[in-house]
């Protein structure tokens, strides 16, 4: 607008002095600063011509406030980008919404790369399962607000489904196996979401969502557990905003010797034990499975505590052994009190189940994972080891 106001004087002189320009029946063949219109019709014609030229020179005039708000809303709905970034791109692109959308994607990807080093402790776990195995991935972001975003949740679920497609030789052996993140990130996928769609790679999709969210978004880890045969694979997601998503996950496999036994009872107890995993946080399956380092560390702590009482060495030894039994009940799955019926432990629960189905039943593997666990330690040590508990 400032340009238009400044241009009005020169335009007027150009219109009044240019040879051969006519308005009505008047002509000007010499340079003069005197207006050439001599009547009301001439004056109207001059104003019309000046308006046409002014509009050409002022084509970049911002639209009305109501139109601006409408464009901001439309682009915000298309991209989910922050409002301040949406407006900045529209202004930069002279309120061309298509060009602004392209600008947002370019700008967002650069910003996403700059934020890649920031600590992201929030996010979601996504679980996908088929008849043969279950896959769980952890997708991190910086705030819980982004974790609740539908695009972030859609991406997490898509990545879990892709993790089921990653074949690894180690998965042929029963147990819990990590998903190779490099292999997963290179996979092609077809996104079918109104705000993020098309063929791309996993890594590009993560970068795209990070650009939209304005936060560091990263695929931190993934694990796969194979289903036993015969037996069942049971899962549970805690704090779940929608099916397949949660903040804590529990997975375990129940194996049965007789493949002809009905599996309904195993599925029921397996589901209850998956909930137990989330609540009780076991670290080991059996007492024999407790690592020597963990046992020795706990023994030293208990001995130090007992010695502070000033009792005799024999009494101290008895105190340590008694407290070790309590330690086993806290960290060993088979020794823990069953959370849904604390009158028995998990070992007794499985014994009762074996009698019910008429065949020995045992826990093959178990796995528990929580969003953000160990991230601070990981950042401090620059390590990439997972902190999930598994057997």
UniProtKB/TrEMBL annotation:
Q: Does the keyword Thylakoid apply?
A: no
State the Pfam families in the record.
EF_TS
Q: Decide whether keyword Mitochondrion is in the record.
A: yes
What job does this protein perform?
Associates with the EF-Tu.GDP complex and induces the exchange of GDP to GTP. It remains bound to the aminoacyl-tRNA.EF-Tu.GTP complex up to the GTP hydrolysis stage on the ribosome.
UniProt-annotated location(s): Mitochondrion
Query: What name does this protein carry?
Result: Elongation factor Ts, mitochondrial
Organism taxonomic ancestry: Eukaryota, Viridiplantae, Streptophyta, Embryophyta, Tracheophyta
Q: Which GO terms describe its molecular function?
A: translation elongation factor activity
Main location as per UniProt? mitochondrion
Domain of life from the UniProt record:
Eukaryota
Task: Quote the InterPro entries the UniProt record gives.
Answer: EF-Ts_dimer_sf (IPR036402), Transl_elong_EFTs/EF1B (IPR001816), Transl_elong_EFTs/EF1B_dimer (IPR014039), Transl_elong_Ts_CS (IPR018101), UBA-like_sf (IPR009060)
Q: Which UniProt keywords apply?
A: Elongation factor, Mitochondrion, Protein biosynthesis, Transit peptide
Q: Where is the Translation elongation factor EFTs/EF1B dimerisation domain?
A: 134-373
Q: Which GO terms describe its biological process?
A: mitochondrial translational elongation
Q: Which family does it belong to?
A: Belongs to the EF-Ts family.
Record-level GO cellular component terms: mitochondrion
């Amino acid at each position: 607008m400032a340009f238009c106001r400044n241009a009005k004087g020169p335009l007027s002189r150009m219109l009044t002095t240019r040879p051969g320009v006519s308005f009505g029946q008047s002509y000007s063949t010499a340079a003069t600063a005197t207006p050439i219109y001599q009547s009301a019709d001439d004056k109207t014609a001059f104003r019309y011509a000046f308006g046409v030229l002014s509009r050409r020179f002022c084509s970049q005039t911002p639209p009305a406030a109501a139109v601006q708000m409408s464009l901001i809303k439309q682009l915000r709905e298309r991209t989910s980008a922050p409002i301040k970034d949406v407006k900045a791109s529209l202004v930069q692109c002279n309120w061309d919404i298509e060009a602004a959308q392209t600008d947002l994607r370019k700008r967002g990807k650069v910003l996403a790369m700059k934020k890649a080093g920031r600590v992201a402790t929030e996010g979601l776990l996504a679980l996908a399962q088929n008849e043969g195995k279950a896959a769980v991935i952890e997708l991190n972001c910086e705030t819980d607000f982004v974790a609740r975003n539908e695009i972030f949740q859609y991406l997490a679920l898509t990545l879990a489904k892709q993790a089921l497609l990653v074949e690894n030789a180690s998965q042929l052996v029963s147990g819990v196996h990590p998903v190779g993140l490099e292999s997963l990130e290179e996979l092609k996928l077809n996104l079918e979401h109104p705000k993020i769609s098309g063929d791309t790679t996993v890594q590009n999709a993560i970068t795209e969502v990070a650009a939209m969210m304005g936060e560091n978004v990263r695929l931190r880890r993934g694990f796969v557990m194979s289903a036993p045969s015969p037996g069942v694979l049971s899962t549970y997601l805690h704090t779940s905003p929608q099916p397949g998503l949660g903040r804590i996950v529990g997975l375990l496999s129940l194996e049965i010797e007789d493949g002809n036994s009905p599996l309904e009872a195993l599925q029921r107890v397996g589901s209850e034990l998956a909930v137990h995993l989330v609540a009780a946080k076991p670290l080991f399956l059996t007492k024999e499975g407790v690592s020597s380092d963990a046992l020795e560390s706990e023994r030293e702590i208990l001995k130090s505590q007992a010695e502070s009482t000033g009792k005799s060495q024999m009494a101290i030894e008895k105190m340590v052994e008694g407290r070790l039994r309590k330690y086993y009940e806290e960290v060993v799955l088979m020794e823990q009190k069953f959370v849904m019926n604390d009158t028995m432990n998990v070992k007794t629960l499985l014994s009762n189940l074996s009698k019910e189905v008429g065949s020995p039943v045992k826990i093959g593997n178990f796995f528990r994972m929580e969003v953000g666990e160990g991230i601070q330690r990981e950042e401090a040590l620059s390590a990439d080891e997972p902190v999930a508990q598994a057997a």
